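Blinded run. Sample ID left blank on purpose so nobody reads anything into the name before looking at the predicted structure. Input follows.
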Amino acid sequence: MTEPDDKPLFATPWIFIRGVPAMKFLPPEGPPEVAFAGRSNVGKSSLINALVGHKGLARTSNTPGRTQELNYFVPDGHSGAADDLPPMALVDMPGYGYAQAPKEQVDAWTKLVFDYLRGRSTLKRVYVLIDSRHGIKKNDEEVFALLDKAAVSYQVVLTKTDKIKEAGVPRLVEETLQKIAKRPAAFPDVIATSSEKGKGLDALRDAILTAIRR
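Blinded prediction complete.
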């Protein structure tokens, strides 16, 4: 498999290939994957859309808990079939922390996510999104612990930094770094982003390309 060519990979058209409600529906393993996790309404879909410059790729919604599957996105021209593997895939994971969802639904999402994290050898990194207005919450800490236990590399990405005072962003980054400093699977760098303003997107693209090549 040839290496993707730097940032132009994100400038090519991307497509949604499938939603995965259970492990048996996962695409064939082969190309590297990076996944995006975060509390409901943290801005995962908006960030994915901004990364690839496609406003309608990942569906956004004001309704928490709408994403109930692992949603796979790849560069256009690659179906994800074994004989046509893409250079990489982006995976939008179900949002967590939405208390109003029925318990059985939450349990089903949780099992899917946990099984995926434990069993996907091509998963190179999980980007855990944290709303900069709220910081790290208890259920974010629980996800960190899960990723640490599964030995899955993860990196914290602050979202919606345009919604807080600009002067407060560096302080928030430093506070976040301190909170994850002793976590064994946490990547020791925090990326501050704004999908609306385009801030931090190049840094995140660089981080993704580095992760899939390791």
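Unblinding after everyone has recorded impressions. The chain has one domain: 8-212.
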